[in-house]
């Protein structure tokens, strides 16, 4: 929680340091906070609440052991611990610290994690201090500090180098050609490098490119080019016996009583190497400059023994510094560094120097849990010396060096051997007289010696990393402008051997890309003060901005910069979903498309739409909707746009090699799972198709036993004819409007008694097949076919039967096959059609007839 609060504070203060145009309506410092004090109080209250909550947890001892005996408590603690470690790793990774919190051994995992947290807190607090200084106006530029009365060198030191600095966009290859103190000989690739330089066809080819050409010619293995020359020696190195005993600290000499020699000639460098070869240990430190160089320059090397201090002008002796490999790689001599993480890489990059048998006092401070691991803190604790850090960021290219800068450089190594003795003694005391902690520090220092330098490689997606860090939301024109400016700056920095901060600082580049000035004067107005190279090439920048303005303007791509942002996603995620393959996206568009056929079919098989070369407008809208919902956990996935150099991929000793192989296996497993899922989906589709066919056939078979209305009416007519012929004349119902009188009824009854019963041979019943039987259906909405079973049992028909019984109108209901519809549904045309055949049927020329009632 405290780390996250610090992260938020750093982001807000960084926003203050950059010029931001505020609108009139913005009065709050942050949404929900009126000013900085309110935000600070809220953050402090959150930290206090988290501290109280952690203090309320079961304490170590019997109480904690009791809770740990419950499996549910163990599982809860394990899950919460993983969550916290994951969050801490992301915060540390955001600030550029080591963040492998989980990949730790079980024996030393807790201690290593604590060390990582301490280092991350130091880095974060240091950034907070820098940002506070910038906010208060103390330091607003990246220019190095210059002593009073001194100016930067007029002639750049790079121009005096015998070998031109290689700023090409190719991987770094070591320049070593001789290997002192070798147990395993130097690979032939490095040993024969001086022969390759004599090839006339490669004189105009850059050195790194010539290495690649020669590698293709001779078919040498790529591991030789990018391997560590002393990897075998470091892997088989054994800790010296001198480190296994508790030392007696040798008091340092006062700085004023110690001689200091400034070495800037080859003879003095050789003499120094011979002196160092006779010593059991010496201290080393470097001073580096990176503002006026693309890759940076090591300007100074300080070496201190028990009796003397030496300052080497590495700018003058850059090509001869490899001589010191004889002592730097001697396993019997201990080289004492403090914070050698970057020093090891700088030695490889500039001088092809490698270190064997190193002791890092920074690692020792971490093991002793001193709270702060910086060198000035160690000097204050062990030597009671307050170091002056004014020249920490000074321009070390100045020649001759001022006296105060020389004194600062000497202090970094003059007291380091005494600190080395004191810290070894403290490590023995902390381990109860055993060399276990010293051995642990020595192993960590050996791992640092195995580090390799990697050049910054420019790719098409390199600008996205900086874009995400700036927490901006650009539209397509602004993003194109930012990409073009980033590429222009990188190319110019490599050609001129200048840092990107000197060419065009990040905040100025973001400002230009955001404003998109229409005129060159607008570009210079966005850069205050205007960098020299921007002023020289403002017309070229104007053309790049003009090219970006011609890009079609699309909707702004807004990112959520919170716990669930997409900070680790690639640039392609803005256009399509990177977590889904293109064919899967197209399948989802077909499944969830907005178009549907007008034809309605119940038992037809599902036919997939044919592949379209260009998606429809509806599919494009569906895709844009899908793109708006980003995966909230994408930031925790491995990034796809991070450049991994080829030498790291092919080096079995690197972690990237292991991760690369692991990703290959995971991708193969993922492809196998996707293939199985697709096969399963196909089988389910086939099964569903078979079930639909079966249902269709069963329904068609059930329709065979159902008669049509015409067939049912014909059959019912034959049944009524047989009933009349068997039973005789049945009582008639008065249907006609002209009823007969009583004497006529009596005469008809007498005639019926005298004459024999039975129908006449010329009697013809009414042919109902000629009638329009569709009118009997009324306005039914349920089905398209007449279903007598369902209609006979409906609630409305039962109610209608009861009404007919009460009114007496249902006398003929016993001989009917179908129930009548409601009278209000019969149109006048229907009533006329029913009445005509009925009257003609009830009044035949004979004395009796078969009667039908409706």
Counting helices, strands and paired strands, the structural category is: mainly alpha
Describe the largest sheet: 6 strands, mixed
Strand order of the main beta sheet, please?
Answer: 1-4-3-2-5-6
Tally of helical segments: 34
The counted number of beta strands is 6
CATH topology of the domain at 188-450: Nucleotidyltransferase, domain 5
- The CATH class of the domain at 188-450, by name, is Alpha Beta
CATH architecture of the domain at 188-450: 2-Layer Sandwich
Strand fraction equals under 5%
Q: Write down the overall geometry.
A: elongated
Q: Roughly what percent helix?
A: 40-55%
CATH superfamily of the domain at 188-450: Ribonuclease H-like superfamily/Ribonuclease H
Radius of gyration: 47 Å
Extract low-pLDDT stretches: 1-25, 557-612, 728-739, 809-826, 835-854
Terminal Cα span: 88 Å
**Mean pLDDT over the full residue set:** 74
């Amino acid at each position: 929680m405290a780390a996250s609060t610090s992260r938020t504070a750093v982001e807000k203060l960084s926003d203050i340091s950059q010029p931001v145009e505020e609108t009139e309506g913005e009065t709050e410092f942050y949404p929900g906070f009126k000013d900085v004090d309110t935000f600070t109080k809220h953050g402090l209250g959150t930290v206090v609440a988290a501290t109280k909550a952690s203090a309320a947890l079961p304490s170590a001892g019997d109480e904690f052991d009791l809770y740990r005996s419950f499996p549910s408590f163990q599982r809860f603690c394990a899950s919460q611990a993983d969550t916290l470690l994951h969050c801490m790793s992301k915060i540390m990774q955001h600030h550029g610290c080591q963040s492998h919190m989980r990949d730790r051994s079980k024996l030393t995992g807790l201690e290593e994690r604590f060390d990582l947290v301490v280092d991350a807190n130091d880095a974060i607090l240091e950034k907070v201090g820098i940002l506070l200084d910038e906010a208060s106006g103390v330091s607003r530029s990246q220019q190095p500090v210059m002593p009073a009365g001194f100016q930067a060198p007029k002639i750049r030191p790079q121009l005096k180098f015998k070998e031109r600095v290689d700023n090409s966009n190719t991987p770094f290859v070591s320049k070593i050609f001789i290997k002192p103190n070798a147990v395993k000989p130097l690979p032939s690739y490095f040993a024969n490098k001086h022969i390759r330089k004599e090839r006339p066809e490669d004189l105009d080819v850059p050195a790194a490119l010539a290495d690649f050409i020669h590698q293709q010619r001779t078919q040498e293995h790529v591991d030789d080019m990018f391997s560590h020359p002393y990897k075998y020696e470091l892997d088989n190195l054994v800790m010296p016996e001198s480190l296994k005993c508790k030392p007696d600290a040798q008091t340092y000499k006062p700085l004023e009583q110690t001689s200091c020699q400034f070495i800037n000639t080859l003879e003095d460098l050789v003499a120094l190497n011979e002196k160092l070869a006779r010593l059991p240990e010496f201290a080393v430190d470097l001073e580096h400059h990176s503002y006026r160089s693309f890759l940076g320059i090591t300007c100074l090397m300080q070496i201190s023994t028990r009796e003397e201090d030496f300052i080497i002008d590495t700018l003058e002796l850059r090509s001869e510094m490899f001589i010191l490999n004889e002592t730097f790689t001697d396993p019997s001599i201990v080289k004492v560094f403090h914070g050698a993480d970057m020093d090891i890489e700088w030695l490889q990059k500039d001088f092809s120097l490698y270190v064997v048998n190193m002791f890092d006092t920074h690692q020792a401070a971490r093991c002793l849990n001193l709270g702060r691991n910086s060198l000035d803190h160690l000097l204050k604790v062990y030597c009671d010396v307050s170091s002056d850090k004014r020249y920490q960021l000074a321009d070390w290219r100045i020649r001759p060096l001022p006296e105060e800068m020389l004194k600062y450089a000497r202090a970094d190594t003059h007291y380091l051997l005494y600190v080395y003795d004191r810290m070894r003694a403290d490590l023995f005391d902390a381990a109860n007289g055993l060399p276990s902690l010293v051995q642990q520090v020595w192993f960590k220092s050996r791992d640092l010696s195995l580090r390799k330098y990697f050049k910054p490689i420019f790719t098409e997606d390199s600008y996205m990393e900086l874009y995400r860090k700036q927490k901006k939301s650009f539209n397509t024109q602004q993003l194109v402008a930012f990409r073009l400016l980033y590429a222009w700056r990188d190319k110019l920095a490599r050609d001129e051997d200048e840092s990107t901060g000197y060419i065009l600082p990040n905040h100025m580049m973001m400002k230009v890309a955001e404003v998109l000035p229409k005129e060159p004067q607008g570009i210079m107005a966005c850069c205050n003060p205007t960098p020299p190279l921007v002023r020289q090439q403002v017309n070229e920048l104007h053309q790049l901005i003009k090219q970006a303005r011609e890009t079609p303007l699309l909707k702004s791509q807004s990112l959520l910069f919170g716990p669930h942002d997409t900070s680790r996603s690639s640039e392609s995620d803005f256009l399509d979903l990177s977590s889904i393959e293109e064919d899967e996206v197209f399948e989802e568009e077909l499944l969830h498309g907005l178009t549907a056929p007008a034809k309605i079919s119940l038992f037809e098989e599902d036919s997939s739409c044919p592949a379209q070369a260009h998606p429809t407008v509806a599919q494009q809208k569906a895709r844009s909707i899908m793109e708006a919902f980003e995966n909230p956990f994408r930031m925790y996935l491995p990034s796809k746009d991070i450049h991994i150099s080829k030498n790291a991929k092919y080096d079995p000793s690197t972690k990237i090699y292991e991760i690369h192989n692991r990703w290959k296996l995971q991708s193969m497993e993922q492809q196998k799972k996707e293939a199985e899922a697709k096969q399963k989906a196909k089988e389910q589709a086939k099964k569903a198709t078979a079930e639909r066919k079966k249902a269709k056939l069963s329904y068609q078979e059930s329709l065979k036993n159902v008669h049509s209305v015409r067939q049912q009416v014909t059959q019912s007519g034959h049944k009524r004819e047989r009933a009349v012929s068997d039973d005789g004349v049945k009582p008639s119902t008065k249907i006609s409007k002209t009823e007969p009188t009583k004497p006529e009824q009596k005469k008809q009854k007498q005639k019926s008694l005298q004459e024999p019963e039975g129908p006449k041979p010329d009697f013809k019943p009414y042919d109902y097949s000629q009638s329009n039987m569709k009118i009997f259906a009324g306005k039914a909405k349920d089905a398209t076919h007449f279903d007598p079973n369902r209609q006979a049992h409906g609630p409305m028909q039962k109610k209608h039967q009861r009404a007919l019984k009460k009114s007496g109108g249902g006398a003929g209901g016993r001989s009917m096959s179908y129930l009548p519809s409601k009278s209000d549904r019969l149109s006048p045309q229907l009533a006329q059609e029913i009445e005509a055949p009925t009257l003609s049927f009830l009044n035949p020329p004979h004395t009796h007839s078969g009667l039908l009632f409706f």
